[in-house]
Specification:
Helix content is 33%, strand content 19%. Strands 2-1-3-4-5 form a five-stranded parallel beta sheet, with helices on both faces. The longest helix is centred in the first third of the chain and has 11 residues. The radius of gyration is 14 Å and the shape is globular. Bound molecules: ligand CA2. The site of ligand CA2 has 16 residues, from loops.
Length: 137
């Protein structure tokens, strides 16, 4: 099974700032743990701070991998383009948020991804990515 995690803007800062919201582990370290835990899977990871690069990656992988785990970060709440890309591909997308976006500012409570996601996980910390993998299994 081929899965990809796509992370949006500023998630490259995980573990380096705001540990009270996002935890203290870097995504690189967490991703290594996931790969060890799910040795039988082919899991890759892509992060970009650029909206168009995220759309390009969705187009690139969205017709042949088995599942996409997408944390579009702030673009979740603003990007019609990423929402349209999720709608336009055939691979199922699980939307993940580390924090509980519904317990935060009002602007975080709208998602352009959710209407076309096969599922949404939020508020479980980094474990949400693991739960998303399990949902594909
Ligand atoms: O909870 C999530 O996973 C979010 O997608 C994270 C986004 C935020 O804009 C969404 O509303 C919810 C922000 C990611 C920024 O990550 C940082 C990590 C460490 C330090 C600074 C930012």
């Amino acid at each position: 099974m081929k899965l990809i995690i796509i992370n949006g803007p500023n998630l490259n800062l995980l573990g380096k700032r705001e540990p009270e919201i996002y935890g203290s582990k870097t995504f690189e370290d967490f991703f290594k743990e996931l790969q060890l835990k799910y040795k039988e899977l082919e899991i890759s990871c892509f992060q970009s701070n650029i909206e168009g690069e995220i759309i390009d990656k969705l187009h690139e992988v969205g017709f042949d991998c088995d599942g996409i785990i997408l944390n579009a970060a702030a673009y979740t709440h603003t990007s019609v383009g990423i929402g349209d890309a999720v709608k336009g591909i055939t691979t199922p997308v699980v939307e993940v948020h580390i924090s509980n976006i519904h317990a935060r500012e009002e602007f975080r409570q709208h998602s352009y991804i959710s209407p076309n996601a096969s599922g949404v996980l939020f508020g479980f910390g980094l474990k949400g990515y693991d739960l998303a993998i399990q949902s594909f299994l």
